[in-house]
Amino acid sequence: MTAAYYAARAGQDVVLVDSRRVPGEKILLSGGGRCNVLPIESDPHGYATSSSPNTLRKIVQSWPLAEVRKFLEEELGVRLIEQKRTGKVFPATGGGEDVRDRFVAALRRKGVRIVTRTKVVEIRPSERRRVMLEGGAGIVAEQVILATGGLSYPRTGSDGGGLRIAEALGHRIVPTYPALVPLRNGRFEHTALAGVSLPVRLEVGAGRTKAIGVGDFLFTHVGYSGPVVLNMSHHVTRALAAGERLAVRVAWLDRTETEWLDVLSRGRGTLRGILKQDLPDRLVDKLLEELDLWDAPVEPMPREARARVLAALTAYPLPWVDSCGYREAEVTGGGIALADVDPRTLQSRIVPCLHFAGEILDAVGPLGGHNFLWAFATGRLAGEGAAAVREA
Known about the structure:
Elements: H1 2-9, E1 15-17, E2 38-39, H2 53-60, H3 65-75, E3 80-83, E4 88-91, H4 95-109, E5 113-115, E6 120-124, E7 130-133, E8 138-139, E9 144-146, H5 161-168, E10 173-179, E11 183-185, E12 197-204, E13 211-219, E14 223-225, H6 227-241, E15 248-252, H7 257-264, H8 271-275, H9 281-291, H10 303-314, E16 316-317, E17 320-323, E18 331-336, E19 354-356, H11 370-388
Parallel strand pairs: 1-5, 9-19
Antiparallel strand pairs: 2-4, 3-4, 6-7, 7-8, 10-18, 11-14, 11-17, 12-13, 12-15, 13-14, 15-16
Helix pairs in contact: 1-11
């Protein structure tokens, strides 16, 4: 929709084709409907890609965050509010539906023709960029922008069709994987902890490739979620797509061994009683059950038992088995290699007069509105880039 808006703003005749009843269905799902539309601060280094990180940063920084906010507020008419505690920006009223509706209204004001419930199945560059639709009809277009998303939330229309079209035209597709996604557990008994939430430090992998994240962690009925799990999940799922399983370890409350030793030296009594002063009761019970230290006293505690307790508190091996897949992934990792596009216009280096925007490209942002920012920045580049191209 951003690409269509900016192409029309530049004076072009624009047709927006969407397979759903109304474009922008995924907007309605953001932030549980509240629509975390932007971050308070941009962090180009927080994105992940298998392509050039430098190219990714150039694309994100092509549209300063303050100008994106101005676009939303002044051109779309969306009043924004900041949630400083989380670093997120939301619409003041109406949530995702208001953002989507204002976007559609702005497109109509610019003269964009919106064609819905229509699926694009093929692009034929040799036939004057003929865009083939399901059922055999076609649209003749001087420029084409593919902004079809990845594979996440397929019920919104992002079923990977755009990736298949791009690959058929010769573009390199970095293998896709679900990102910002909960993980499934490998121990049935952990379902008893569903609903338990606390801050943690997560360590994924080991050695030079180890990644560390800090934030809130949530046990669910099927596994693990919360901001820190979602933000770190792309490390797990990208490796899994490549045939590698990474270890995930948890430091409860983001504390070190030294800090936990201070806790254990608070006084006498049972280990369970001491730990429950800081950790959720059900988590303490589960950890001590696994350690077989249910009624262990704090003093005296054998050195071997103390070492096991500290390991469970600072490097607990999370027994994950898989992610929750594309149905629950907020975004898709992988996609069209950034080397295949001109970062100034997002025009394909393989097929002239074909541009790309959004999640179809190889980039994943963290939680907090950063993937919206990527959609806005790439949409504007592709829309203006397509509008500026002239037939050879």
